[in-house]
Structures are given as structure tokens and as C-alpha cells.
Amino acid sequence: MCGNGGNPARALDTSRMSLLGSLTASPAASVVRQMRQAQRADGPASVLAIGTANPANCVRQEEYADYYFRVTHTEHLTKLKSKLNRICQRSAIKKRYFYHDEELLQNHPEFMDRTLPSLDARMDIAATAVPELAAAAARKALAEWGRPPAEITHLVVATYTGAHMPGVDLRLASLLGLDPSVRRTMLYMNGCSSGSAALRVAKDIAENNRDARVLIACAELALINFRAPDEAHMDTIIFQALFGDGAGAVIVGAEPNGSVERPVFEMVAASQSIIPKSKHAAVGRLTEHGLVFNPSFEMPALILKNIEQSMNDALGPLGLNGCWNDLFWAVHPGGRAILDSVEAGLQLESNKLAASRHVLSEYGNMSGSTVIFVLDEIRRHEQALPDMGVLLGLGPGLTVETMVLRDTLS
Length: 410
Ligand SMILES: CC(C)(COP(=O)(O)OP(=O)(O)OC[C@H]1O[C@@H](n2cnc3c(N)ncnc32)[C@H](O)[C@@H]1OP(=O)(O)O)[C@@H](O)C(=O)NCCC(=O)NCCSC(=O)CC(=O)O
Fold this sequence. Notes:
Blueprint: H1 8-25, H2 27-39, E1 45-53, E2 57-60, H3 61-71, H4 78-89, E3 95-98, H5 102-106, H6 119-145, E4 154-159, H7 168-176, E5 183-188, H8 194-208, E6 213-220, H9 234-242, E7 246-254, E8 265-274, E9 282-287, E10 290-295, H10 299-315, E11 328-331, H11 336-345, H12 354-363, H13 370-379, E12 388-395, E13 399-407
Parallel strand pairs: 4-5, 4-6, 11-12
Antiparallel strand pairs: 1-7, 1-8, 2-3, 6-7, 8-13, 9-10, 12-13
Helix pairs in contact: 3-4, 4-9, 6-7, 10-11, 12-13
């Protein structure tokens, strides 16, 4: 019996402690510590450049119901069409952009007929359209950054529009002329919080790898979820009323090179939490009919009830809780009611979500890339910004992704 009362876990703990003690005291441990320090950046990561892109086909929201019921050959569903018309009018969206147009849809009756399998055809389109849209956004970010694409060291790509091996990341790296040694990471099926998740991952990479320059790209096409209306599936028309196509790209790095790089926002802290009892509130799955995504009626109410607690948990440890109106806010505009819930839940002044409302109005909900559009919009008004702000992603879980930012331009 060793002196631990016969408890094997305690015996293991004791032997680990002594191993750790001898390691930390050894010269090798100190060399390893120095190696790790040398690998890490000294300063926090910053957003160094932002780019966004949309496909060419623009549909005005006031015309959307006519367009949608015409292209899906369902004009006989008059009650459903008036309902979509009403929802569009109250959506606070003016227009949206789509990769698909009437010609593409007429060539693919399987995208409209719920009885026909359509995943293969959707995936074939996504395989080229998603990396090309991501590349359009990334080229703008690279141009603003001002350094050669080959100096990007890491690539993080997020999408739910398809899933391929190799993925969008490899095709995107080739379209942009990134170095073959670029370290690639794909994030699939993170829903609308994917842009915030990619930024969080980029911050960790940049801070843990000295001189890393991380390109993140999010791109989504609503085509993956496009289908005809059906009275038994009300959530279909909610998706059709809100979602549009877009891509956002951001370059992230620590210790900016002052002669070329101009940091936009310092990434102060990032966290993720879950709204309790809400995993049913935004649910998606890939099926033989494409992605089926169901945002529930309850999402706005769940956010209203829980957002202040989520922000207290994320910002309290930084001493930033409670003073919500002293911060700027880049909130994912999932829908008008989602923004109303965040505004009411945090008692924000009405101008605090102006950038999110502007992006919703101009583009609709482009899933994970939308928050990058909001960040881009916010930096255009940097003279009027408070020093500190919050990027807030909302996605299935319900997941709340929070990143505290410091405006470095003003
Ligand atoms: C869609 C809206 C613009 C509609 O606003 P309105 O002012 O017209 O009023 P409303 O809320 O009463 O809704 C109008 C009609 O649509 C119905 N309706 C509303 N939400 C619905 C839903 N999720 N599923 C099915 N039907 C729904 C209502 O019952 C009502 O039907 P009737 O007229 O028959 O009474 C708004 O409700 C909204 O913004 N909702 C939030 C949308 C959302 O969930 N976004 C998140 C997407 S996911 C996301 O961003 C992140 C992610 O998870 O990945």
C-alpha cells in the first residue's frame, strides 16, 4: 500500500507531479519553454484587412414573392404567396444577391421538386461557385493588406454550402496563388456563427505562431437550401424570405508590420457559449434534397431572454459588462426580429445596431459571412466609434460567439 490510502488516482497524480517537477527543473524544459516563447507572437492579433463579395444576380425584396412563386411554378399557392409577401415587407431587407438565376433553376427542376434527389447537382455547382465567390472577397482583402498572397501562412475557410474532399480551402488557395505550404483548416456546418468562429480560430493561430498571417474566408449560397414552397413546411418560406449569397474574407495577424500593414481592430478576447435549452431552435442537416435548415419561431424570444446573461458571462471577466451603450456592436443580422431581440435584451440605443441593420437591408442574411460585412460597414464610420466593441455571432446551438474588439483606427 503506498501512502495514498490505496487510491490509484492519487498515486497517478503524485507520480505526475514528480515527473513535472523534474521536467520543469531540467535544462531541456527551459529550452522547450524558450522554443515555445519564440514560436508565439508577443502582441494580440488584429484584423489587418477585410473584403466582401456577392454574386451578380440581385432580386429586390418587394419583387421576391412574385419571382419565387413564378420560378418554382407554384403561383396557385396564393395564400402562401401573400404570406411571403407580408413577411418580405416586414423583413427590413431591401434586396439580396444570388448565384442562381431563373435560367439555372429552369435547368434543374430537381431543385424545386421535393420528391427528386438534388444533392449531387447542388454539390457540383458549389464545388466551383463557392471557392470563386470566396476568392472574390479574399482578393479584395489581399489588395487592402498590400503584401503578396504567398505570405499568407494559414487559411481558415467556413461554409455549409457543400462538403468536398479536398475542400473549398484547397481550391481557394490555388485560385489566390497561396504558397503550397499554407496551413489549411476547413470549418463545415457552423451555420450563421461560422464567420465569428473562423475569426476566433484565426486569432488563436495568429497569437500562437509568430509572424503568422491568417486568411479567413466564409462563403455561402442560398441555393443549397432553395426549394419550392409547401404548406406543410412553413420554415421554407422563412428561409426564402431572409437568406442571400455572399462571401467575407479577413486577414488576421499579430505585431503588424507598420510600413505596410494597417490594423483595423485589435482582437482583445474571444469566447463561445450556448443559450440553455435551445438546441432545437436552429437545426440543419444535409439530405438528398440539399440542406434542410429550420430556424424555429422561438429563436428571437430565446435571444431576448438570454442575451444579457451571455454578454455578462463573456464580458464580465474583462470588466466590460453592463456598460453596453459604451461599446460598438457588430451583431449577426439573422433577421429583423433577431436584431430587435439583441437591442431590447441589452437595452441598446437605437443607433447601436445601425451597421447590422444596414447590412441586413442591403444583402439579407448571408449566414456566417454576414458579420464580416457588418465589420466592414462599422469601420467605414470609425470616427464615430467608441474605442471598444463586440462582434457577436449567433448560430445553431444556439451558439453565441463573442469577440471583444478595440478600434485601432480612431
Ligand atoms: C421572419 C420575420 C422577418 C417576420 O416578421 P413579421 O414582422 O412578419 O412577423 P412574425 O414574426 O409574426 O412572422 C410572420 C409570419 O411568419 C411566421 N414565422 C415567423 N418565424 C417563423 C419560423 N421560424 N418558422 C415558421 N414560421 C415562422 C409567423 O408565425 C407568422 O405567421 P402568420 O402570419 O401565419 O401568423 C421575423 O419573424 C424574423 O426576423 N424572425 C427571425 C428569423 C430567424 O429566425 N432568423 C435566424 C436565421 S438562422 C441564423 O441567422 C443563425 C443560424 O442559426 O445559423
